[in-house]
Amino acid sequence: MKRRSFIKQVLNGSIAGSLYLVWPMSANSLDVPEQIPGIRGKEYDSLNREFAFIVDITRCIGCGSCCVADKREYDVPEGNYRTWVERYVKGFSDTIYVDSPHGGLDGYQTPRSDIKEKVRDTFFVPKLCNMCKEAPCVQVCPVGATFKSPDGFVLVDEKRCVGCSYCIQACPYSVRFLHPKKKVADKCTWCYQRVRKGLLPACVQVCPTHARKFGSMKDETSEVYQILKGPGVLTVLRKEMGTYPALYYKGARREVI
Amino acid sequence: MDAAHGSSVVTSIANFVFPNDFHVHWSMMIVLYPYITGLVDGAFIIAALYYLFDVKSLKPVARFSLLFALAFLFCATLPLLLHLGRPERNLNMLLTPSPSSAMAGFGYIYAVSMGVLIFIVLFVYRPDLVELRATSKGRLQMLYRVMTFDSVDLSEDAMALDRKIIRFLVGIGIPIAVVLHGYVGFIFGGVKANPTWSTPLMPVIFLFSACVSGISAVILAYIVIRKIKGRSIDHGCIKTCVNTLILFFILAFTFEMLEVFSHSYLKSGYHHMVEGLLNGPLANSFWLWQVKICSVIPLLTLGVMGLIKINKSLYNFLAAVVSAILLLQVLIMRWNVVIGGQLMSKSARGYTQFHPEWFDKEGILAVMAVMALPFIILFVMGKIFPFWHKESQTNVKET
Fold first, then answer.
1. How big is the A-B interface in CB pairs under 8 Å?
2. What kind of fold does domain B9-391 have according to CATH?
3. What's the burial of A24, exposed, middle or buried (CB within 10 Å: 0-12/13-18/19+)?
4. Which end of chain A is more exposed for a tag (fewer CB within 10 A), N or C?
C-alpha cells in the first residue's frame, strides 16, 4: 500500500470512528432489549407513570457490584455516595455492629476482625434515594432546583441549584451530597435517564442476586407490583419521618435505620 | 442514657456514620449568619426601646444602636454568599423562589429589614444630613439631597412629623426584626431530619439569644468607644441596658436549658443521640463553655449587678466584662447548634468530627474578615452619622 493511500484510509477511519462516538444514539439504536416493558414505542406519559423500588435484604450478598455500576454510570466523586451497602453484624449480646467502608464499593470480602463476641447474624443493607412522596428535600429547596417529576422521581436541576445544602440537611436518609466539582447537590436518581429509555437502573441491572428490584406500578404483571400488592411484609426506612418513600425493604430487621 | 456514660453497649454501637455524613456541610459561615442577624436584632431592640417606648435613659446609645444594627445588616448576607456552592446564582432565591421552602423567604425579609432600617437612620439623622448638605457641593450635595428626602425644613412641626415617622417605622421594624431572627431559627427548627434542630423552641431560643448578643454588643461597644475617646459613660443608660440584658438573658438561658431538658425528659426518638452528642463531642463546648463559663458566671454577675448596690465604675466594668462573655456565649451557642447538630449522623449510631480550616472560603481567616467588615463599615458611617448626641459629647471623665 502506498503511503498516500494508507494515510487516506487512516484518516477516513478516524473520521468515521469519531462520528460514531459523537453521533447521538438512543437506547433503541444500541439494540439493548427493553428491560421495563411498555415504555418504548409510545409517547412517555409521565402523568400516568409510577415506579417502585424494592430492596430484598435477604438476597443481598454485599458484593458491591451495584456501587461499582453506580460509580461508573455517574462518575461519582470519591468520598461521596449515591448508593452504598451497609454491613450489619449482630452479636449474641444483641449488640449491633454496622460499617460501610468505602460505601461497600470494594465488596465485603473479609469478615470484621474487631468483633470479639460470637456472631449471631450478618446481613447487608443497600441504601439509595428513597424517592419520598412527601420529600423534605423538595420542600426545603429555596429555588425549586430539587423537584418531583410527575412520574414520582425526585431530581436535581443542576443548572438551577445554588448549592446551599439545605436539602442535604433535610434528607433523613443522608443520600445527598454536594458535588465537589459542580458545587451543586447530587444524589441517586434511580437512573431516570435509563428508565425513560426502558432500561433498569444500573444497580438493578448488575445485581447478581436480584436483591434490587425495580418496575412499574402501572403494570400489574411487574414483579414490584406483585410484591407490593401481595401479602408479604415490606417496610420503609424511618417511617416516623412521614416521608412516604417509594423505596421498600423486604426482610429489613428492626435494627436497620 | 447509656451513651452519656459510655457504657460498653452504646460505645460499641456508636460507631457508624452514614458515608455522606462525614462532611459537615454547614460550617462556620452558617454559624456567623445567625450570629450577625442576631446582633442586628438585639441592637435594634435598644433603639426601639428609646424611639418607640420612650425609655429616655437609652438616649445616649439609641442612635449608635441603629448604626450598629445597620452596619451588621449590610454584612448579613456575606456569610451566605461565601457558603453557597454557586454564589453567582444567589438571585435565584429572589427571582424564582420556591414558596414551600423556609429558606426562600430570607431575601425578602432581609430586603424589607434593610429598607426599614435605612429609612429609620435617614429620618433620625435628617438634621445632621441637612447640615452636611448645606456645606457640601456637587455630587455629594446631590447625595445629601436624596438622603434628606429633599427637605431642609427643620422647623418644630417638621421635626414633630419626623418623630412620628420614626415611631411608625420602628413600630413596624420590631415585628420585622422578630420575624427576621425567629425565621433564622425556624430554618434550623424546620429540619425534621435533625433531632437537635427539630424543635418549635428553636426560633424562640434564637430570638432571645439574638437580643442578648445585640444588647451586649451595644453595651460593650459604647463603653469601649467612650473609654477610648475619653468621654463620659452615662451610668443610667448602662443600667437600663443591663437590666434589659438581664431580662433577655434569663429568657434565653431558660429556653436553652428547657430544650435540653425536654429531650432528656420526653425521651423522644433519638434522644440518646442528642444526649450522647451533648455529653460526648460537645461536652466541652456545650456544658463547659456555653453553660458553665459563659452562662452561669454572667447570670450570677448580672444577679449581683441587679440586686446589690455597687459603685458606678465597678458596675460599668462588670457590664463590659459580662457583655463580652455573653457575646461569646451566643457565638458558642450558634456553634453548638449549627455545627454540633451536624456532628450527629442520621444513622443514629455515630458522630462525625469538624476541623475548621484556616484558608478555606469558609475558614477561620474568612470568618475574621467577615466579622471585621461591619466594624469598618461602622467606622466609615461614623464619619457621616455621628454616633452620639451633641449634649453627651462632653469631655467629662467617667462618672
1. 136
2. Formate dehydrogenase/DMSO reductase fold (1.20.1630)
3. exposed
4. N
Report d(CA B325, CA B341) in Å as an integer.
Answer: 23
**Chain A contact set for B102 (CB, 8 A):** 140
Which residues from chain B sit within 8 angstroms of residue A78, using beta carbons?
none
From A257's Cα to the closest Cα of chain B, the distance in A is: 6
Cβ contacts of A161 on chain B, cutoff 8 Å: 85-86, 89
Q: Which three cell numbers stand for residue B216?
A: 451586649
Amino acid at A86: E
Q: Is A82 helix (H, G, I), strand (E, B) or coil?
A: coil
The complex's ipTM? Answer: 0.91
Span A46-250 CATH architecture? 2-Layer Sandwich (3.30)
Which three cell numbers mark A197?
429509555
Q: Are B348 and B270 in contact (CB under 8 A)?
A: yes
Q: pLDDT digit string (tens) for B181-228? A: 899 999 999 999 999 999 999 999 999 999 999 999 999 999 999 999
| Per-domain boundaries in chain A | 46-250
* Per-residue pLDDT tens digits for B282-302: 999 999 999 999 999 999 999
- Whole-angstrom distance, CA of residue B381 vs CA of residue B358: 30
The residue extents of the domains of chain B are 9-391
Task: Give the gap in angstroms from C-alpha B155 to the nearest C-alpha of chain A.
Answer: 48
